[in-house]
Amino acid sequence: MAHYQAMGSIPPKRHTQHRRPAGRGKTGELYYEELMGEEGFSSDSSLLYHRNIPSTIAGAREWTIGDLSTTPNHPLKPRHLKLHDLFDAKDVKNTDVVTGRRLVLGNGDVRISYVVAGAPSPWYRNGIGDEVVYVERGKARVETVFGAFDVAEGDYLVIPRATTHRWIPKRSSKDPLRAYCIEGNSHIAPPKRYLSKYGQLLEHAPYCERDLRPPTGPLLAEDVGAKATDASEVYIKHRGNGPSGIVGTIHELPFHPLDVVGWDGCLYPYAFNVRDFEPITGRVHQPPPVHQVFEGWNFVICNFVPRKVDYHPLSIPVPYYHSNVDSDEIMFYVDGDYEARKGSGIGKGSISVHPGGHAHGPQPGASEASIGVQYFDELAVMVDTFRPLELGEGGRAVDDGKYAASWLKGSGAADGSDSSIG
């Protein structure tokens, strides 16, 4: 994110001496400078100043990541996955956002996982790509080497590749922490069409820099009740030669990970709440790209928020039937009354999988019923991928098996119930 920030103690000039405080007449030891940069240091970067040598490892061992196997969507058909059936309430208190994720869908570009967590996560960094974590429900504190965030319902947290951090659910929340995790094999950023050639969000973008929350900090070990010398472990997800191409390692450190006294640059985690997204509307139905919020390599992320709908006198507010011939469309239904899916069995916590090669659109009767509607009270997160997605173990476990038949006239709801999620 090319929006410069500076935090904590940094020297006036980069790559020059920056020393720790020392007694009168004494010279303190140097802080250790780390340049964290993208695309071979030819894109965004930040400079972090550490108390300890960031390369230090006291030991390393394997981390066995959960089941990342995938199964092709073959024979090709649309699917309804019920994410709220993935976790039992009794298991939540011992589940964390990092190790408890269950893979729902994935391909070589992106993986979509879901977790309901009540326990603090280990320190973690993703060495494969950026992550976008959407907080469906609950609250958490997220501590990173750049600083901390307090996140809650509706927050996206964008975490750059190799950022060491941990998730701590807040027990004061009435809801457990429900997180929808989108892991790229690339960087994830605002769409290029929203940005000037220098990286500023333009006037036509549905959000701006004022809506983005940088971390608060800097955050050091003593700020979280620890000692700077506390030994620690960092769980690392990285590339390897396993069946999924993804393996895990645990690095043992002889000090606490929170040792950054200051940093500056344009590469850092940030939060964005979906309520700050300003929807783009029109007299007739607008295409999905107007809902886009982020993009990665071979995938995009969109959100559908409460909004005024089409106001042409003859408009049909729900979507037309469409064949997105280049992508799979994955819609995560978070809140509201999703007009186009009435009669399908879909509700809060559902995912619809509409694969490329299959025309999809509103359920029978939804188009006629939407005429005259002026406002949609709906909230959903959509991921479109330009390579086919396969079903992960989590997706296979909660596939309702009925959704493909929900467009048959006279069939009623796929599960015999009203699908309104209001």
UniProtKB/TrEMBL annotation:
GO terms for cellular component: cytoplasm. The keyword Nucleus does not apply. Residues 299-395 form the Homogentisate 1,2-dioxygenase C-terminal domain. Its cofactor is Fe cation. Pfam families: HgmA_C. InterPro entries: HgmA_C, Homogentis_dOase, RmlC-like_jellyroll, RmlC_Cupin_sf. GO terms for biological process: L-phenylalanine catabolic process; tyrosine metabolic process. Residues 12-23 have a biased composition (Basic residues). Homogentisate binds at residues 338, 360. Signal peptide: none annotated. Fe cation binds at residues 322, 329, 360. It comes from the Bacteria. Gene3D superfamilies: Jelly Rolls. Keywords: Dioxygenase, Iron, Metal-binding, Oxidoreductase. Transmembrane segments: none annotated. GO terms for molecular function: homogentisate 1,2-dioxygenase activity; metal ion binding. The active site is at residue 285. Residues 1-25 are annotated as: Disordered. PANTHER family: HOMOGENTISATE 1,2-DIOXYGENASE. Belongs to the homogentisate dioxygenase family. This is Homogentisate 1,2-dioxygenase. The lineage of its organism: Bacteria, Bacillati, Actinomycetota, Actinomycetes, Micrococcales.
